[in-house]
Amino acid sequence: MVKLSPSVLSADFARLGADCREVMDAGADMIHFDVMDGHFVDNLSFGLPVLEGLRKALPDAYFDVHLMITHPLQYVKRFVEAGADCITFHVECADDLGATIAAIKAYGCKVGLSIKPDTPAECVFPYLDDLSIVLVMGVQPGHGGQAFNPVALKKLRKLRAECKRRNLNPYLSVDGGVKAATTAPQCVEAGANLLVAGSAVFCAKDVAAAVKEFKAL
C-alpha cells in the first residue's frame, strides 16, 4: 500500500499544528519536515524549535525530517531530541555519509538518504542496508512550484530492482511535483511506495479527499 507524507512547507504557518493534525486525521502516514540552511540550498525554512512544537502538538505523529543542509552530522543529536523519527539527509552533503548514518542510528533514529535529480541512483547502493527511506527528488531541492523531472522514474526503477535483488525493503520515496492525478501514479508504477506531497494536500479545497486520492494509488 502506498504511504503519504505531506510536506509542511505547503502548510499555513499561522496554523501549522492544526494543519498537520488535519492531514494526519485524514489518513496521512507521516509528516515530511523540510529543513533548509540557505547554503546547501539557496533558501531557508524552519528548524529545531518548530519541530519541538509540532512534536508536542502531535505526540503520536511520525516525523520524517528532511535535512537539506550542508553539515547534517553536527545536528543529528539535536533533531532527534527535538522529535525526529527518521532523519533523511543528502548524499551530496559535505559530511561523511557512513559517519552520519552511524550517528543517526546511535541515537535510535531511523535513517533516510536523498538524492538530487542530477545524482545517480547508484550512489545510494552502498548504504541501502542501513536505510529506512530512500528519497528521490523529482525537482531541485529548495523551492516549490517546479515541474516534475521524469529522471526520477528511472532512478526509482533502478532502486527498486537493487532492493529486490538484495531482499531489502526500505521505503522508496519521491518528493517534488507529485500530483495524485498525474505524476504520482507514474512514480508508484516505477517503484515508489511513499509519496511526499505539499500543495497537493495542504492547499487542497478538501484535504481529506486529497489524502484519500493519494492513498488509493
How would you summarize what this structure contains?
This protein has 217 residues and is of the alpha/beta class. The chain has one domain (3-215): Aldolase class I (TIM Barrel). It has helices at residues 16-25, 48-57, 76-82, 97-106, 151-165, 183-190, 199-202, 207-215, and strands spanning 3-6, 31-36, 63-68, 86-90, 110-115, 133-137, 171-175, 194-197.
Could you describe the 3D structure shown?
By secondary structure, the chain is α/β, with parallel strands linked by helices. The protein has a single domain, classed as Alpha-Beta Barrel (TIM Barrel), CATH 3.20.20.70. The protein is 34% helix and 19% strand. Strands 1-8-7-6-5-4-3-2 form an eight-stranded parallel beta sheet. The longest helix is centred in the last third of the chain and has 15 residues, at 151-165. It starts with a strand and ends with a helix.
Q: In percent terms, what proportion of residues is strand? A: 15-25%
- In N-to-C order, the SSE pattern is EHEHEHEHEEHEHEHH
Number of domains: 1
**What's the helix count?**
8
CATH architecture: Alpha-Beta Barrel
Global outline: globular
- Helix percentage range: 25-40%
Question: What is the class in the CATH system?
Answer: Alpha Beta
Going across the major beta sheet, what is the strand order?
1-8-7-6-5-4-3-2
Taking pLDDT < 50 over at least 5 consecutive residues as the criterion, the unreliable ranges are none
CATH superfamily: Aldolase class I
